[in-house]
Amino acid sequence: MRVLGLLSGTSHDGIDVAVVDFDESDGMLRGEVLHTGSVPYPAALRARLVAALPPAATTLAEVCELDTLIGQAFADVARDAAASVGGVDAVCSHGQTVFHWVEDDRARGTLQIGQPAWIAEAVGAPVISDVRIRDITAGGHGAPLVSFLDELLLREHAGVSAALNLGGIANITVVGDGLRAYDIGPANALVDAVISAYGLNPLGYDEDAAIALAGSVDAELLDELLADPYYALPAPKSTGKEHFHLAYVREHVAALGRDLPIADLVRTLTELTVQTVARDVAAAGVGYLAVSGGGCRNPLIMDGLRAALPGTEVVLADELGASADAKEAILFALIGWCTMYGIPAVIPGGTGAREPRILGTITPGSGPLRMPEPVAALRGLTLR
Asked: Could you give the CA distance from residue 20 to residue 340 in angstroms, rounded to a whole number?
């Protein structure tokens, strides 16, 4: 079965896509990655999305319009990707997260927009969407869902290994004596917010860490940021831009009572990512760390992690068969396959759920919805 995976992450800079041709035999799943890509949001649409995100106020009318416009943008990307491989059998769209409701250290709801019916209309295949909420109803955080893929890819490694994703938020899956997964804190979210607010780079991020490398770490600000109570919470836990956003940065800078050069601010926020991630990786005794997400292309972050973790082998996720740039799109292709075949694509240790659940809602394609014969369970996964 060919499944197309789609998402836009917490950096909300564009749409990632992957098409994977899956073949299963006796619980062993093999996936051939046929296509990967990333398509930036149109500038005007991204500006509207950013303006509507928390802590900004918005309206239901704006949410409705963004749901349609993002759904249409996803549909365009899906149509082109499906055509490039001669068609697909199903699509799994994560959509765009606009709010993740965490209260009293428990996830209570989550909202992803990008109307899947537009994708179904464009591609003609059934679309699995709204994949996080089912885990939340079972007591989980709905994140990090990538722990399901991580466990399959890491289970053959001896000792304690981990997969780290550096998107807007940093999340980690630790595999050793059992599995733990959770959101560590901000990866690129705070730096991206500052870059965008001050127009430092039209791309919206610190390309090659050029701005951070021109600055110095402000020790006082870093200490204050590290004191955020979120970092001390036990796993499982999840967070997002509802907590880590531009106003959060400005409040901390204002509390310094002095001017801070922008380059120093960006350098300090980058160091925050390095220190929070390295602290958790070291505490877990991780010997092998596979990194993915936009932050893995930031040399200051990667060099900082390697320097702080001399006893850990730090590599790109490509070594596991999942491209560091396309891993999450591959994940959603996998989730789509699992949903179609009746397999729960979540591990309770990864999200905190009471029990695993089959994820998502299915929008039929252009014809009748025909589900394949269910598969009892997955014993392993190989990607190429």
From this structure: 14
Residue 325 has pLDDT above 90, yes or no: no
SS3 87: coil
Q: Are 255 and 306 in contact (CB under 8 A)?
A: no
pTM above 0.85, yes or no: yes
- Give Cα separations from 307 to 16, 241, 297 (angstroms): 30, 28, 16
User: Does residue 88 surpass a pLDDT of 90?
Assistant: yes
Tokens of 200: 């430092």
pLDDT value, residue 206: 95
Burial code (b: 16+ CB inside 10 Å, e: under 16) for 20-38 equals: bbbebeeeebebebbbbbb
- For residue 168, give the amino acid letter: G
Q: Is 293 helix (H, G, I), strand (E, B) or coil?
A: coil
DSSP 135-171: HHHTT--S--TTHHHHHHHHTTSSS-EEEEEESSEEE
Q: Please give the biggest Cα pair distance in the chain.
A: 65
Q: Where would I find the H helices in the chain?
A: 43-52, 60-84, 116-123, 133-137, 147-154, 189-197, 210-213, 219-226, 246-256, 262-283, 299-308, 327-340, 348-351
Residue 383 — φ and ψ, nearest 5°?
-120, 145
* Model confidence pLDDT, tens digit, residues 127-172: 999 999 999 999 999 989 999 999 999 988 889 999 999 999 999 9
* Cα–Cα distance for residue pair 218/199, rounded to 1 Å: 22
Nearest C-alpha neighbor of 4 from the set 147, 163, 122, 164: 122
- Binned at pLDDT 50, 70 and 90, residue 55 comes out as confident
- Which amino acid is residue 97, in one-letter code? T
List of residues 6+ apart from 38 with CB closer than 8 A: 14, 15, 16, 17, 325, 326
Query: Could you tell me which of 45, 51, 37 has the C-alpha nearest to residue 13?
Result: 45
Looking at residue 12, what is its pLDDT? 82
Pair of tokens at residue 26: 């006796």
